[in-house]
């Protein structure tokens, strides 16, 4: 396990050409690695498996709407390798549509915190939305605050360092129920916070 990480390159050839048609991480002139790819062979960032029997391949699977694949992501390796997702190659597709990159998104944790739980009408309340996750990247994107049960946004803005702060001045005497919604990004799916109440009293 102490020497499980390797550097490597990929060179592609074709029967129609004598020279390599493509290379990544290898200097084809010398055969040496150059800006190589890297992976942990014992704990790869992404592992894809599917149904297998003696008549099928361990690496090739039928490309059918009813088929399914199991995808495992090792968070630490995935982040270390700056992975971009899983690559699927559809051999029977036309040229230009054979390769498909699938983003592998994690579920984030969205938290909404109010500076106070009770405030006088038109008083100041600081609302802080924090989004965290285990994908190895700080969440980006936008967060919005809604009143629970309403489709109208009260506040919205971009995350910075996984956080966003809003200042609100509630104008009605009642109990508000707030909810934060996260838009998602290339590494995390959309997600919501738990609801948080705010009691607004007469001045």
Structural class: mainly beta
Distance between the termini: 65 Å
What is the percent of helical residues?
A: under 10%
Strand tally: 19
User: What value does the Rg take, in angstroms?
Assistant: 25 Å
Coarse shape? elongated
Count of domain modules: 2
Mean pLDDT: 89
Uncertain stretches: none
N-to-C order of helices and strands: EEEEEEEEHEEEEEEEEEEE
Largest sheet: 6 strands, mixed
Structure notes:
This protein has one helix at residues 75-80, and strands at 5-8, 10-12, 22-24, 26-27, 32-33, 37-40, 46-50, 69-73, 86-89, 99-102, 109-114, 118-120, 125-132, 142-147, 153-158, 163-168, 175-182, 191-192, 196-201. With 203 residues, the protein is mainly beta. A hairpin with an 8-residue loop joins strand 17 and strand 18. It contains one helix and 19 strands.
Descriptive tags:
single chain; 3% helix; 1 helix; 203 residues; mainly beta; Immunoglobulin-like
List the helices and strands and how they pair.
Layout: E1 5-8, E2 10-12, E3 22-24, E4 26-27, E5 32-33, E6 37-40, E7 46-50, E8 69-73, H1 75-80, E9 86-89, E10 99-102, E11 109-114, E12 118-120, E13 125-132, E14 142-147, E15 153-158, E16 163-168, E17 175-182, E18 191-192, E19 196-201
Parallel strand pairs: 12-19
Antiparallel strand pairs: 1-6, 2-3, 4-5, 7-8, 9-10, 11-13, 13-16, 14-15, 14-17, 17-18, 17-19
